[in-house]
């Protein structure tokens, strides 16, 4: 039997399987087109095979795609005696797929916002995080309340002589008000991909545990 974990103010919709004592949480990787969301999930899928017992599903849209699979965070403990199953999703980044992004965000418990460090993508990052905030509002979720980690991806581009934004600029653009955890990363090389994942899982589990204790 499954029950929805309805949080105050619509803050979360994790599912609890009472029979198997499993909490199913949903984490979505969000960000502009070609920022590295897919590369993050492909790296996780490749490196964490022991903690994944499902195939990676790809839903293709024209010129973009959505990915998802189940992840079992063995080393992160339990929530109030329940095991945890995390569903990891990416959203299509291109603006024209906003309806798909909204659909993927339904029932989200935690978000990784993947920003593109390339200097010429600065505006795309800003538009995308505003779009995230707007789409969360559709489900009565506040970007300031939901577990959120920002990843400054593609730091490796500097080695190729491509101009990248410094972290101070990225923080000012995307994180000056939110003040959430952030990591420099290279999904292609795997730098801080797992660290980003562990942080969002930890924050999401902490949030769900807190909310579970508030349930009648």
Q: Round the Cα radius of gyration to an integer and report it.
A: 17 Å
Give the CA-CA distance, first to last residue. 18 Å
Helix segment tally: 5
Order of helices and strands: EEEHEEEHEHEHEH
Low-confidence stretches: 6-12
Work out the count of structural domains.
1
Strand residues, percent: 15-25%
Q: Give the helix proportion (percent range).
A: 25-40%
Say what the CATH topology is: Rossmann fold
Explain how this protein is built.
There is one protein chain. This protein has a single domain, classed as Rossmann fold. It has helices at residues 37-47, 98-105, 122-137, 167-174, 193-214, and strands at 2-4, 15-17, 22-30, 57-61, 64-71, 83-90, 110-116, 148-153, 182-184. It is globular and about 55 Å long. With 216 residues, the chain is α/β, with parallel strands linked by helices. 30% of the residues lie in helices and 24% in strands.
Structural features:
216 residues; alpha/beta; Rossmann fold; nine-stranded mixed sheet; 5 helices
Compact description:
The protein has 216 residues and is an alpha/beta fold. It is built from 5 helices and 9 strands, in the order βββαβββαβαβαβα. It has a single domain (26-71, 86-198), classed as P-loop containing nucleotide triphosphate hydrolases (Rossmann fold, 3-Layer(aba) Sandwich), CATH 3.40.50.
Structural topology:
Layout: E1 2-4, E2 15-17, E3 22-30, H1 37-47, E4 57-61, E5 64-71, E6 83-90, H2 98-105, E7 110-116, H3 122-137, E8 148-153, H4 167-174, E9 182-184, H5 193-214
Parallel strand pairs: 3-6, 3-7, 7-8, 8-9
Antiparallel strand pairs: 1-2, 2-3, 4-5, 5-6
């Amino acid at each position: 039997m499954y029950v929805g974990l309805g949080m105050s103010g619509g803050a979360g919709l994790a599912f609890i399987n009472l029979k198997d004592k499993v909490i199913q949480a949903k984490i979505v990787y969000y960000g502009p087109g070609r920022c590295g969301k897919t590369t993050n999930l492909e790296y996780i899928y490749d490196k964490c095979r022991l903690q994944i017992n499902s195939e990676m599903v790809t839903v293709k849209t024209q010129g973009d795609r959505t990915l998802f699979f189940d992840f079992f965070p063995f080393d992160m403990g339990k929530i109030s005696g329940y095991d945890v199953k995390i569903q990891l999703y990416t959203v299509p980044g291109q603006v024209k797929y906003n309806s798909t992004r909204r659909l993927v965000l339904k029932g989200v418990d935690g978000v990784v916002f993947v920003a593109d460090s390339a200097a010429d993508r600065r505006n795309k990052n800003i538009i995308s995080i505003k779009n995230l905030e707007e789409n969360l509002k559709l489900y009565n979720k506040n970007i300031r309340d939901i577990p959120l980690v920002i990843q400054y991806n593609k730091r490796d581009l500097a080695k190729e002589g491509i101009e990248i934004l410094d972290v101070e600029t990225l923080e000012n653009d995307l994180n000056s008000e939110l003040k959430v955890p952030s990591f420099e990363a290279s999904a292609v090389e795997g730098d801080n991909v797992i660290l980003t994942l562990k942080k969002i899982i930890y924050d999401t589990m902490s949030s769900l545990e807190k909310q579970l204790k508030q349930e009648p």
